[in-house]
Write a structure and sequence with these properties.
The protein is α/β, with parallel strands linked by helices. 50% of the residues lie in helices and 11% in strands. It has a single domain, classed as NAD(P)-binding Rossmann-like Domain (Rossmann fold). Bound molecules: NADP nicotinamide-adenine-dinucleotide phosphate.
Length: 317
């Protein structure tokens, strides 16, 4: 009888966990943190790159409403002004600082931007740097990637953020505190057929920033790496199976305010693939090999590149 009760308990627990996982929008550690720690955000100087649209714009809106002092960056200054005019929170929109920035311009140019960011808010210094900007090309086979797109992707997604970090970290180290929040991607954890170079750039930032944290965390420098799956933004290629940009931004801020080192933000099936590749790589990579070629073909036809039917659909010609 006792064995029956115990095994029933385990079966019920397993079914409940499975149900929770199927409905999940992020990894289970992240979902256990229910709310943003507002005190970690309020009155902090937060610098966001790629804030002119997409997830960066929504992050700016949510951080403003949590009382952050914002510096918003991107290349398109007009769009930054539009975003600024829509922000509301403890600090008036006039207090939001616009810092135009092109991440592909090299270290000398970025050094000027860092000096400027550090001097804002009466020289308070940057508490949080959110590396959100990125360059993504339409999907293509790994062998079809041009040198121009390879360089452009790595300049914006990897070299720019690393240079900014090296420059900014010297100021943070003097203060003995600072946090980098890195918008990576599920493509930085698993293969991403059709996005080989983008995926490589996200694996690269994951490697750099996890290592940076291991070297500097004892000196007060923290890192949160966020790996979203498909997110619905105004510029999303296709709309099927995507988490809202609002929920992605909310979970990103929860992860950062709780000091998580890495957070996965996605619904199914991408979340399940991330778990498989991380914890059962033989099965995970086998699955990716089954869908890889078909996914590129489906992307070319503007179909749903996250559909489960890629697993059993016809082979691409
Ligand atoms: N959307 C998704 O499904 C998804 C999924 C996983 C991960 N992510 C990651 O989440 C982040 C935001 O994605 P998103 O979809 O919101 O991107 P998005 O809508 O394409 O916006 C990209 C942002 O980066 C800025 N940017 C592009 N090139 C730049 C450059 N050379 N210098 C400075 N800023 C530059 C753009 O502004 P300007 O053009 O004005 O410069 C824009 O604000 C990215 O890191 C992306 O890889 C997105």
């Amino acid at each position: 009888m006792l064995i029956f009760i115990i095994s029933s308990f385990f079966v019920a627990f397993f079914i409940a966990m499975l149900f929770k996982f199927l409905k999940a929008e992020g990894d289970l550690t992240l979902l256990s943190k229910k709310h943003v720690k507002r005190e970690e955000i309020e009155d902090k100087v937060v610098w966001i790159t790629g804030a002119s649209r997409g997830i960066g714009e929504i992050l700016a809106k949510q951080l403003a409403s949590l009382g952050a002092k914002l510096i918003i960056s991107a290349r398109n200054e007009a769009e930054l002004h539009r975003v600024k005019s829509q922000l509301s929170g403890k600090h008036a929109p006039e207090e939001v600082m616009i810092l135009p920035l092109d991440l592909s311009q090299g270290e000398e140019y970025l050094a000027v931007a860092v000096q400027k960011a550090e001097s804002l808010f009466e020289g308070a210094g940057v508490d949080y740097m959110i590396h959100n900007a990125a360059y993504e090309r339409p999907k293509s086979m790994a062998l079809d990637v041009t040198e121009e797109s390879l360089k452009a992707t790595f300049d914006v997604n990897v070299l720019g953020p690393i240079s900014l970090t090296r420059l900014l970290a010297t100021h943070m180290l003097k203060r003995g505190r600072g946090r980098f929040i890195v918008m990576s991607s599920a493509a930085g954890k698993t293969p991403a057929p059709g996005q080989a170079v983008y995926s490589a750039s996200k694996f690269a930032v994951n490697g750099y920033f996890h290592t940076l944290r291991s070297e500097l965390c004892q000196k007060g420098i923290k890192v949160t790496i966020v790996c979203p799956g498909p997110v619905n933004t105004s510029t999303s290629e296709n709309k099927g199976h995507r988490l809202s940009a609002e929920r992605c931004a909310e979970l990103t801020i929860i992860a950062a305010s709780h000091g998580l080192k890495e957070a996965w933000i996605s619904d199914q099936p991408v979340l399940a693939v991330m778990y498989l590749v991380q914890y059962m790589p033989t099965i995970g990579y086998w699955l990716m090999d089954k869908i890889g070629e078909k996914r590129v073909a489906v992307a070319a036809q503007k179909g749903n590149t996250y559909s489960l039917s890629l697993l059993w659909g016809k082979k691409a010609k």
